[in-house]
Design goal:
Layout (H helix, E strand, L loop, with lengths): L1 E11 L2 E11 L2 E12 L1 H19 L4 E6 L2 H9 L7 H12 L4 E6 L6 H15 L1
Parallel strand pairs: 1-4, 4-5
Antiparallel strand pairs: 1-2, 2-3
Helix pairs in contact: 1-3
Length: 131
């Protein structure tokens, strides 16, 4: 099973944003920071999940994925597989499509303090755009 921690951050809402992804797999750790341009904080959170799924599809195909996020909105929308929000709908559809490539995909909410590594990576992605 692959453990994936995701976080999105935005400087301003909307504002410069970034995605941070921390993956634990087979005793190794992988870190990713993705600058995302101008997005809302919630959009950045969804994009972090999408980017992580793309990484897993490439690097860990056919694995069981256990995602963790401190975004209650993202976890709720993905868990329920439903949203009325027209901004979130295409993001949910993208997550639905990418996650279907895996035998099992779980997403769980965790408190911010348990997601510090992914948060630092998301903030690093914002700083990368400011240079």
């Amino acid at each position: 099973m692959i453990e994936v921690y995701t976080d999105g951050a935005a400087k301003g809402n909307p504002g410069e944003s970034g995605a941070g992804i921390y993956i634990k797999a087979s005793g190794k750790a992988y870190e990713y920071s993705f600058p995302l341009g101008v997005l809302s904080n919630h959009e950045a959170e969804f994009m972090a999940v999408i980017k992580a799924l793309e990484i897993c599809k490439e690097s860990f195909p056919n694995e069981i994925l256990s995602f963790r996020s401190d975004s209650q909105v993202v976890v709720h929308v993905v868990d329920q597989d439903y949203t009325k929000n027209k901004t979130f709908l295409p993001l949910l559809e993208n997550i639905r499509e990418l996650s279907s490539a895996f035998p099992y995909f779980f997403i769980k909410w965790i408190p911010e303090k348990q997601n510090k590594h992914a948060d630092e990576l998301a903030r690093k992605a914002i700083r990368m755009q400011a240079q």
